[in-house]
Amino acid sequence: MGLKKIRVIDLFAGVGGFRIGLDRASKRFETVWSNQWEPGTKTQDASNIYVKRFGEKNHSNVDIAKVDISEIPDFDMIVGGFPCQDYSVAKTLSQSQGIVGKKGVLWWEIHRLISSKKKYPDFVFLENVDRLLKSPASQRGRDFAIILASLSDLGYAVEWRAINAADYGFPQRRRRVFILAYNKRTTIYKELKKTDSKEWVIDKGVFAQEFNIDKHKILEENKFEIQGNLVEITDKFNKGKKNSPFSNLGVMIDRKVYSAKITANYHGKRTTLGDILIPEKDVPEEFFINGDYKKWEYLKGAKSEERTNKKENFTYKYAEGSMVFPDTLDKPSRTIVTGEGGSSASRFKHVVKCKSGRLRRLTPLELERLNMFPDNHTEGASNIKRAFFMGNALVIGVIEKIGKALIKKLDSTE
To answer: Given a cut of 60, is residue 333 above it in pLDDT?
Structure first.
């Protein structure tokens, strides 16, 4: 029983971060189908890299909304890093699976793939930006409540954890929310059902297996039930309140939620930005910043100035704090953004100082290392595209740890 394969479909696959992380976690994970589609562009660069690394068998490079469910082989787990959008529901229909969300909102495509199969997958494993827990600004937490309620209505229990990769020794400060859902037929669901919710997320749950927390600093505990159908949640959830009821850790079963704010408790090895750099002699000349540093210093410096919006014809006060320039080498890096590539000066691009005193940007290989990809995984695309891929990617070490934790929990419950 313990050796049973977990068949995975990999959605919004990018260049394969989820797949690599699960492959590293256990041989039990087997990716049986993948989909990567970049709208609005003719060249499907990320999909091309994915195929180059993993082969074209059972890989789909079409809009997920156009994929016929019959084309997808049977699967036990669905994974993906989906965009943070407006998940509101326009209406629910009387027949089963009758949900009408906004067109192009990819959460509803995940929902469609789950609910269209006769046997719902055992597990759902998703990643998103942590602002999902408190969006939209006008109705804090509504979007996450819709996701939790819709999964509950499909027969899933859910636990989540907002994790900053650097808090657990990884080389990049990248904070994301990770969501695990367990179908009611699974042994994990059954154990969760009979376990106190707080005990689950602090000690017994999947995230608790690999991501230690400070158990003396559990704050903002909150218990509540998500009520109403999805249209009512869309219209009414948390309306008029300033704060989201969802903190950075939590669990939901039968729409009953326990949530709390926690801090990481990690004392192991830590990888820094300096640890991943290649020797200066191996850096191509195009990555060095030659000549005047003034524009870089201005963009990364503190500002308080009057600016004019020419389109709307009004002036406003703009202010922002300073950033470390060049980047500190003895700490994890800042978050990689999609605009990391290119030679133009930028507030958010990383700049490091070499032993020679020269300043330079990070190479694509170094950006891959910050997300824990194999060296030159994205080779074959342009440098700007390679940087874009890493700005969209995740820290693979986090996925690997979650994958290991899931296997560990299955081994203890099956």
So the answer is: yes
State the angle between helix axes of 17-25 and 396-413 in degrees (0 to 180), rounded to the nearest 10. Answer: 40
Helix (H) or strand (E) holding 368: helix 364-370
- Every domain of the chain with CATH number 3.40.50.150 lies at 6-267+395-413
pTM here is: 0.93
Our answer to whether residue 354 is catalytic in this structure is no
Residue 300 CB partners (closer than 8 Å, separation 6+): 322, 323, 324, 325, 347
Whether the pLDDT of residue 1 is over 50: the answer is no
pLDDT digits (tens, 9 = 90+) for 152-189: 999 999 999 999 999 999 999 999 999 999 999 999 99
HSE, side-chain direction, 13 A CA sphere, residue 184: 8
Percentage above 90 pLDDT, the chain: 81
CA 299/CA 236 separation, integer angstroms: 42
Whether residue 326 has a cis bond before it, omega within 30° of 0: yes
pLDDT digits 0-9 by tens, 100-125: 555 557 888 899 999 988 899 999 99
Assigned token pair, 34? 């993948």
| Cα pseudo-dihedral 53, 54, 58, 61, rounded to 10 | -20
What distance in Å separates the CA atoms of residue 311 and residue 309, rounded to the nearest whole number?
Answer: 6
Q: What is the pLDDT of residue 311?
A: 78
What sign has the CA pseudo-torsion 383, 386, 391, 394? Answer: negative
pLDDT at 92: 47
The DSSP bridge pattern shows strands 175-183 and 156-164 to be antiparallel
Average predicted confidence (pLDDT) for the chain: 92
* Residue 398 near residue 200, CB atoms below 8 Å: no
**Which among 59, 61, 84, 384 is annotated as catalytic?**
84
Distance, CA of 339 to chain centre: 18
Pull the structure tokens for residue 383.
């440098």
In the block, tokens 């068949």 appear at: 7
For domain 6-267+395-413, the CATH superfamily is: Vaccinia Virus protein VP39 (3.40.50.150)
